[in-house]
């Protein structure tokens, strides 16, 4: 059968056509006669141009021209009114034709790895667009996507964007993923809250020194990635605690209404309004009861007065701070808070061991033991199944305590500045929600490639150790690149 006969037979068929990896240098004219084509895949060829006949394929729903040598697209692509998915990534495009705004059905547009410096305003007319991929171009600003009311994902990483304005954000209410990593953004506007459905915000490797406090009010936001920014207005330890705690911090910094002044009737429910713990550096019982926090830090003490514990117990205190004192063990009266204590800050003391009684505080979510002389943790801590964050920095651990691997809700481990020599990749992989691991300034001589399979980890810090590989240049690329590198080293 002749070529023309084949074309004639195919003319009325609803067919997909794949001619990828065939070293094609141009689109065969015969293809433009296949008016009923629904899917056309020409990726991984050597196409330098696409002829105007592409516009005749007006029933196309899927067009893949990726990994070719295209420097421009013909205006006739705008005639592909039924096109749903258009992939033109990995080419040499410096512009997109304005006619692309006529692709009324388009849901996914991928122009990753090109040479775009700007985008046509007509792009904002794509009413049904859901996914927009523009990574690795030369864009200096966000596109103005005025009418893209269904847009869910925008990927703009690895461009030259310096500024995001309220005008750009006010039309993006439906966006759930905003990836603007590896740009030069120095400030986010308060109007980021226009993205009321935002779930993931990737700001890795920009020039941000702070964040708008209003960001913390986006209830849907589950992930904020900030690696590689020169943050000055937010402490590093707050960032390292993860998105939930970062949002809490941002909300706490927003201007709040002035509190009502307490009356002379004392605390409601008959609470004590006096001073406890001695008249010199005593604490206000009112403050303990209102905040449910006992702060007895920085007093050079090795015990806490009984009347303080009594008020704390009656108040149902959830947070205790005994850091920067002279304690050598858990205070015996801490057990009075067994049923309520959630956060315990016990850093900068003189612990060499910690009592197994710590395992009795089943509601603990945060435990800070930094700057002590600890080298192990009791096995009894395996009962702490609500533990979310543990701080072991500046102690004498030679390995991460194995009991940590029993805490399946653990999200954050700070164990920097110890004497840790090995990493248990299997143990870490068994922690399903682990997001942050800081092992900086230890004695680690080898990083196991299997650590790369711990893809749940979003921030892995390994600087200041004895190993030579991964090299500092790889560490500097951030956690995602580091894990990818480690996976590439796994011997199958």
UniProtKB/TrEMBL annotation:
<dbReference type="GO" id="GO:0005737">
    <property type="term" value="C:cytoplasm"/>
</dbReference>
<protein>
    <submittedName>
        <fullName>Leucine-rich repeat-containing protein 40-like isoform X2</fullName>
    </submittedName>
</protein>
<dbReference type="Pfam" id="PF13855">
    <property type="entry name" value="LRR_8"/>
</dbReference>
<dbReference type="InterPro" id="IPR032675">
    <property type="entry name" value="LRR_dom_sf"/>
</dbReference>
<dbReference type="InterPro" id="IPR003591">
    <property type="entry name" value="Leu-rich_rpt_typical-subtyp"/>
</dbReference>
<keyword id="KW-0677">Repeat</keyword>
<dbReference type="InterPro" id="IPR001611">
    <property type="entry name" value="Leu-rich_rpt"/>
</dbReference>
<dbReference type="InterPro" id="IPR050216">
    <property type="entry name" value="LRR_domain-containing"/>
</dbReference>
<keyword id="KW-0433">Leucine-rich repeat</keyword>
